[in-house]
From TrEMBL:
<dbReference type="InterPro" id="IPR024925">
    <property type="entry name" value="Malonyl_CoA-ACP_transAc"/>
</dbReference>
<dbReference type="InterPro" id="IPR016036">
    <property type="entry name" value="Malonyl_transacylase_ACP-bd"/>
</dbReference>
<dbReference type="InterPro" id="IPR004410">
    <property type="entry name" value="Malonyl_CoA-ACP_transAc_FabD"/>
</dbReference>
<feature type="domain" description="Malonyl-CoA:ACP transacylase (MAT)">
    <location>
        <begin position="14"/>
        <end position="289"/>
    </location>
</feature>
<protein>
    <recommendedName>
        <fullName>Malonyl-CoA:ACP transacylase (MAT) domain-containing protein</fullName>
    </recommendedName>
</protein>
<dbReference type="Pfam" id="PF00698">
    <property type="entry name" value="Acyl_transf_1"/>
</dbReference>
<dbReference type="GO" id="GO:0004314">
    <property type="term" value="F:[acyl-carrier-protein] S-malonyltransferase activity"/>
</dbReference>
<dbReference type="InterPro" id="IPR016035">
    <property type="entry name" value="Acyl_Trfase/lysoPLipase"/>
</dbReference>
<dbReference type="InterPro" id="IPR001227">
    <property type="entry name" value="Ac_transferase_dom_sf"/>
</dbReference>
<comment type="similarity">
    <text>Belongs to the FabD family.</text>
</comment>
<dbReference type="InterPro" id="IPR052760">
    <property type="entry name" value="Mitochondrial_malonyltrans"/>
</dbReference>
<dbReference type="InterPro" id="IPR014043">
    <property type="entry name" value="Acyl_transferase_dom"/>
</dbReference>
Amino acid sequence: MGAEAQSVPAATKLFNQANEILGYDLLDLCTNGPKEKLDSTMISQPAIYVTSLAAVEVLRARDGGQDVINSVDVTCGLSLGEYTALAFAGAFSFEDGLKLVKLRGEAMQDASDAANSAMVSVIGLDSEKVQELCDAANDEVDENDRVQIANFLCPGNYAVSGGVKGIEVVEAKAKSFKARMTVRLAVAGAFHTSFMQPAVSRLESALAATEIRTPRIPVISNVDAQPHSDPNTIKQILAQQVTSPVQWETTVKNLMGKGLEISYELGPGKVIAGILKRINKGTSIENIGA
């Protein structure tokens, strides 16, 4: 992450600005690790945010790149990516967005450390079957180990969050529900559930102190798969997002239903491209890394 962007001065500048805000060398962590540190949510969230916006500068620097950027008429991002999308749309500055993301990562890390929780991807089932699997698991665990669907990604791929005991029951029962496989996610805890509630008040305070403007283009929210233009509503939605399931499948289907033709995935990896192809094989999407 970040290495490719160093050939673009505007992208390099973002990493230098990030170092001052974060108090550590983000690029060094992105390129050299150690992986265990980079995987921690308090580091990975700023890393993904900065690298994704550096990818925008990589796109801008190529022939016709600014024309592509000017042509974009809607944007969205998966979970943390919503902050990148809002920054791209001018809802807040790069610096203010990074400060929010830094606090979000720290608050979610603290909430994760306070509870024995986890996430697992369930592969090969529709959302109704995954809900049945969650219900079956919840019948066998205490209230503080309950599980729920946290990420509605695409048909056949849904992430479940909850207490570790509940997650273990999901893993044990998945085959009996005809799941193809489960994959335990390398995250700090049960994101996008009530396990993250301790992070909400801290995020609300930071959002209240942040200037948020009306986005220049629609930014689709993870919470309800709808765009929001009112700055106060955006603040409320971002605070709500950490405890609400990610409605990514609905977001993508809505965009396709409205005629989505060309899209770009800006940032590390090609996860979004894979999800879009799962929903519609004919989708045109280009990945631009950094």
